Amino acid sequence: MNRYVRVLIYSVCVFLLVSCANRENKSNVYPLTGTKAEKAVVERPIAVMVNNHPKARPQSGLSKADVVIEALSEGSITRFLAIYQSEMPEVVGPVRSAREYFIELALGFNALYVHHGWSPGAREMLEGGAADYINGLNDDGSTFWRADFRKAPHNSYTSFKNLKKAAGDKGYSLESHTGPLSFQTDETTPEEAPSSVRFHYGTNQVEYHFEQNVNGYVRKSDGVLTTDMETEEPIVLQNILIVEAEHEVKDHKGRRNIDLRSGGQGLLLSGGQLHKVSWKNENGRIVPVMDGNIVPFVPGKTWINIIPDLREVSNSKGEGV
Q1: How far is CA 82 from CA 86, 292, 296, in A?
Q2: Does residue 115 share a domain with residue 219?
Q3: Which residue positions does the secretion signal occupy (predicted)?
Q4: Among 129, 154, 170, residue at a domain's last position
Q5: Which of 145, 266, 309, 321 lies deepest, with the highest CB count within 10 Å?
Q6: Cβ-proximal residues to 1 (8 Å cutoff; 6+ apart), any chain
């Protein structure tokens, strides 16, 4: 074999290896954000109940959550189910107690469920084996701690280093296959749409505003910009899904049942555009639907707001959307 043939064969082999590597890299994406990953994603999602009482703001670690689902707990106070996979913050909290519908939502991602305390119904579900969970209620201080700059119950924090150790001690797997959300593959150009929308959870007002300079949405709670306590930077989101679901108060403490199964009407803010959609529960996840097909998200972070009445949503001019 002469020198030129050897060089040609070597060049072809290098080309094939590089092509295979490029194809592999292109296929490695985070399933809950649709963004590129350096390797195959095997990390199991971790879902943390995060306090949203005014005395718990600003929270730590919310900016790194792939998906955040907000729903009412008691009264007009909401809680966040923050689902982490592509990024794991050093600190997350304040951590709050479990509710049955948040457990159901975590199960849709096969997530390890993290909480501090529980309602009677949530306790029955978790102790009955519904999900792998880590509870701060009887923690000896090795997984959760109480911050001294806030008062209980708004000061329970944990770290992902602690959570991974606790999961190992309990024999929980931290690897799993995560089914991907649906994401757009082509870039979209923002159309003229409401620059902001707002709605209320009782007395708590939520507002989302699209910012061209960050190509995403920022949020305000009761007129105050939602930031991450650790970075002091605004939380930037690529998708906001607002869905209407039936709420029912079930006990004297104001605990609720929320219908996560029946589907209904919704609004999707994505890429600077506003879409009127429906929603359905697909394998435990709330997803937007139009004409019977799932509407793909823009790659990035997604927040889902579950509210009792979609008619409460208005634009920046106070007009219904």
Answers
A1: 12, 28, 20
A2: no
A3: 1-23
A4: 170
A5: 266
A6: none
